[in-house]
Amino acid sequence: MGASSAPARLFVCSLSLSQILSLAPVVSFSTVARPSGSSALWSSNKSDDAAPSSPSPVLSRRQAILAVPSVGLALSALVPAPAYASTATTAENIGGNLPDLPGEAVRSYLQYRIPLAIAIDFFVFELQDKIEVIDDWGEINVLFQQSSANGGMGNPSRVEREYVNPMRILGFSMPPDEAEDMQKAQQIFESGMSKLGKATKGIRRDIPVEVTDADIQKAREGYEKSRIGLNAFIVALNKATGLNEMKTIPPRGPKQIAQYGRSRSKYNVLVKKTKLCQNRGGPTLAKTWGGLMVTGYLQDSCGIPDLDLYFLQ
């Protein structure tokens, strides 16, 4: 085939699960993201909600992916990445209180609802079980580790990136009453996760360390406090949006998964496909993926399930 022939369909994917999550479709009321450090506290002044002079373009999922200069940063920064509209995901189509909320609240919710829902799935389907297996405590340690980077600036931990930062952004953007409840819930969640991290710190399967029943109990208590905090946050978020899309976590027990109402098997498929996609690209390419010449479709190449359908279980 000559050099002038049509380019081959090529997709290099080495994204982590948190990076894949940031591809969830979001709606934008403007094409400019909130400046770093700006406050999104809700007020009665809704001038930012006014319709722009020219409508923002509605992009397909593929166009949105190609337009983002660095995919996956939205969950590791306090400022949401530029948002792209989806024909299937708009405040008017979803309903509830979204059409009446400030534009920043709508942007934040539509950007972080899917990543946060999948993070909560991990909390239920994986983290809970790891607490009961001492050999898995090393994997719990990793959730709290900040990765080092050149220049002395480290990347946030997975707990910070996938839970705390989205909760903080959502809390700052919502109306005052719900925002206060969400921020209190976030503090409870962080306190519980801190206790869990301290209880499991330094314990790995390759390092012989005596683990007492008291240590296990502290880890369980930390997880339970975090679950309570997450639930309080979800209740306040659902109240603010007027929707019931985010699911609370029932207490541990034989009926927990059935009561939770989300599919463990679908979660496992998502994790498996994401890891497969990551392995095809390699860890080195993941850091510069946004600068690559990419053609083709994510789902065609990696088989990753549609995130909208996954979310709306």
Brief characterization of the structure:
The chain is an all-alpha fold and 313 residues long. It has helices at 17-21, 61-67, 91-94, 103-131, 137-143, 158-173, 176-200, 213-241, 256-260, 264-281, 283-286, 298-302, 307-311. Helix 7 (176-200) packs antiparallel against helix 8.
Can you describe what's shown?
The protein has 313 residues and is mainly α. The protein is 51% helix and 0% strand. The chain is built from 13 helices and no strands.
- Overall structural class, as computed from helix and strand content, comes to mainly alpha
Helix content: 40-55%
> What's the order of the H and E elements?
HHHHHHHHHHHHH
Mean pLDDT: 73
Tell me the β content.
Answer: under 5%
Total E-strand runs: 0
Main sheet summary: none
- Helical run tally: 13
Estimate the global geometry from the Cα principal axes: globular
Radius of gyration: 20 Å
Poorly predicted regions are 1-16, 18-88, 282-300
- End-to-end Cα distance, whole Å, is 45 Å
